[in-house]
Design goal:
Among the domains are: 36 residues, no CATH class; 102 residues, HIT family, subunit A, CATH 3.30.428.10. The radius of gyration is 44 Å and the shape is elongated. The longest helix has 22 residues. It has a five-stranded antiparallel beta sheet, covered by helices on one side. The chain contains nine helices and five strands; from the N terminus they run H-H-H-H-H-H-H-H-E-E-E-H-E-E. By secondary structure, it is α+β, with helices and mostly antiparallel strands.
């Protein structure tokens, strides 16, 4: 018993423990040795620990995920870094909506490139809906496009007609010098194939190549005879739905060189 003091009371022993600093991994030690500055060191360590925790491989403070714990929503680009294949779902969430459009485009391209096949004839009723507006074109226009009562198919290949005189006859077309000349050398080249064709888009590949080859031959003849400075080509078919091309020569002394001579 200590002198001049009361009897000692029994107390539970007080244990004071000093927490040792955590041991650094070899990679952290290497980083610290390369960056002696405390500020740079702190930023590097914070970045390293964050990356290690994301990867779940930090030896100092391993990542622990409790059951039912709320996890912070991830940014979409973090998903892309872990799973590059997920980018298709993020960038094209409605990609299935494009499949019908692609199928239609590919189907049309395959049909258009079928060798030797004549394109289907068009119908104005199929392209436009006239229910909401008055019709101004002839009622039999679709039938005329199909070749009904076509004057050019019925006349054969005459050497001249009421419009002009033929100066060139090719395998696929005849060229006529018009009687009424808006410009010297004004001509028309008429398709003379084995069938009726209302529009150049209805040509087969063979008809297309043959017709335009004959048009070029007729144009060369006009250039040689009249020596114009330019040739204008026009395809209408609004009055006569049979493929034919108007050729109008232009000359340096034309009063209006920019627009066509016919307006």
């Amino acid at each position: 018993m200590p002198p001049r003091s009361d009897a000692a009371h029994a107390h539970a022993p007080i244990v004071v423990s000093v927490r040792e600093p955590p041991k650094l991994s070899a990679k952290l030690t290497e980083v610290r040795s390369r960056a002696p500055c405390s500020g740079v060191w702190r930023s590097l360590v914070a970045r390293f620990v964050r990356d290690e925790e994301v990867a779940g491989s930090n030896p100092v403070t391993p990542t622990q995920v409790r059951r039912g714990a709320h996890r912070e929503r991830e940014h979409p680009f973090s998903v892309l870094r872990r799973n590059p294949g997920a980018g298709r779902a993020l960038l094209f969430p409605r990609r299935t909506c494009l499949l019908p459009i692609v199928a239609v485009i590919l189907g049309a391209k395959i049909k258009a490139t079928a060798p030797g096949a004549a394109p289907p004839a068009k119908s104005s009723a199929a392209r436009w809906n006239y229910e909401h507006m008055p019709r101004t074109w002839p009622e039999d226009w679709d039938a005329r496009r199909q070749g009904l009562n076509c004057v050019k198919c019925a006349e054969g290949r005459p050497s001249e007609d009421q419009w002009g005189v033929r100066f060139y006859s090719g395998q696929w077309a005849d060229a006529y010098l018009l009687r009424q000349q808006t410009q010297p050398g004004t001509s028309v080249v008429i398709f003379r194939g084995t069938r009726h064709v209302a529009d150049p888009s209805d040509f087969t590949d063979e008809e297309l190549a043959g017709y335009w080859s004959n048009v070029r031959t007729a144009a060369k003849a006009i250039e040689q005879a009249y020596q114009p400075c330019q040739l204008n080509y026009a395809i209408f078919g609004n009055a006569m739905p049979h493929v034919h091309t108007h050729i109008t020569p232009r000359y340096p002394d034309d009063p209006a060189p920019r627009p066509s001579a016919s307006g």
